[in-house]
Amino acid sequence: MILNVGSINIDLVYRVPHLVRPGETLAAEKFTRNLGGKGANQSIAAAKAGASVMHCGAVGYDGHDYVKELADAGVSTDTIEILSEPTGHAVVAVDAEGENSIMLFAGANHAIADRLLDDAFADIGPDDWVMLQNEVQVNVEAAVRARGKGASVVYSAAPFDPDAVMDILPFITHLLLNEIENAALDHLSVPVPDTIIRVVTQGAAGATWLAQSQNMHVAAFDVPDVLDTTGAGDCFAGNLVAALERGMSPIDAVYFAQAAAAIQITRNGAAPAMPSRAEIEAFLAT
Q1: Which of 123, 260, 274, 280 could join 239 in a cystine, given CB atoms 3.0 to 4.6 angstroms apart?
Q2: What does the pLDDT look like over 170-201, one tens digit per residue?
Q3: With the C-alpha atoms ordered 199, 275, 46, 42, is the resulting torsion angle positive or negative?
Q4: Has this prediction a pTM greater than 0.90?
Q5: Pseudo-torsion of CA 225, 72, 123, 125, nearest 10°?
Q6: How many CB atoms lie within 10 A of CB 128?
């Protein structure tokens, strides 16, 4: 099983001719309102990839429909709490090339209670995987609980915060970063223990798996019709962990996750664009 202690956001997505510049007022060409948040995106990606996924998190009074959307995607929502404050949200601008810029408001994501973690971790064991990201404030506590149960802990260091990374490093097994985050980590000379597997996504250049026993690079698929890169890293993360959880080798898991992201970026949105396991396998078979 995969337990994801993570954010749930409302994504307010604006299609724009270019990303807004300082001081500029820009007319958007299209607006959509979707389920998002790195946590929710990764949970849906993993569930649609065939994994058994439980999401632990919180939404506000305006989040009932998004909890239902998670459930409809196959995610267990028993440890999602409805609070009185607003659901977290993201204002996302997407330009004509599919690139994006994102502004976040944490909302209920910063109010996950200890009692919710008690429930979420009650049945976690050594064969399970726990996913974490930097959009909630209980990461270290969740990682400590997970390692105490012998579970693997996959931490996405985004949004990047070097202090948060340093605090959690002693308690994780896998560190996921994009190439910008990885460069920032190296620039700050943050010591990453040799026991941690580091996976670095590099956009169109592919992804690199760095471990004591195996270093490898997997090239990305050529995608000529990129529509929207929002959530591509989350798609990769959810599919990578789903593949590892069902016993795929590292190289096959990275390859599978790359294929999932290649499909996802040809669609609009983040969570709604996550492909199914059948779609990924069909893509790989072509």
Answers
A1: 260
A2: 999 999 999 999 999 999 888 899 999 999 99
A3: positive
A4: yes
A5: -20
A6: 19
